[in-house]
Design a protein that fits this description.
mainly alpha, 63 residues
Length: 63
């Protein structure tokens, strides 16, 4: 039993066992951040253009 405990302690000291808690995945890779920003731009640009078009149409109909 002592051998198992010593082996577990050695592995823990070597970093083989991470501490309890939520997993730490580190920072996001730059390409993933760029992909997210590009996706937001692809969604936001048509929405912004449609909003401008609808506002222009609404102003034209006002007396």
């Amino acid at each position: 039993m002592a051998t198992v405990a010593w082996t577990a302690a050695d592995v823990a000291l070597d970093g083989g066992v991470r501490p309890a808690g939520p997993p730490d995945f580190g920072t996001l890779p730059p390409w993933l951040i760029a992909l997210g920003l590009l996706g937001a731009l692809v969604v936001a640009a048509p929405a912004w253009a449609l909003r401008r078009l609808l506002l222009r149409h609404r102003r034209a109909r006002l007396p």
